[in-house]
Amino acid sequence: MTDLERLSGLMGLCVRARRAVFGEDGCLKAVRGGECRLLLLDSEASKATAEKYTFACRAAGVPLAVLPPGQLWKATGKPGKAMAVTDAGFADSMQKMIPIQPTNEE
Question: Fewest Cβ atoms nearer than 10 Å: which of 18, 21, 26, 81?
């Protein structure tokens, strides 16, 4: 089983455990409110959307990972381009399986 398959399984578990937030407003609120432990962003998100999430995550110190195209939909069955993981355990496990973008601008 590949890391991407394991990540997909964890994403599904996270959704079933109600430890994930979807939708632009919900994700940004979770990031800015300190509830988000990891933001997963679909690589097919528009440049403006990606910049909005990247800026919010940098400001809040939240790790951001970019998923392969369509992976969010495949793993969760939820529409949208982002998923905020609100559980530290899920977030820690997921971060071991996918590269995290730096949260500080250099």
Answer: 18
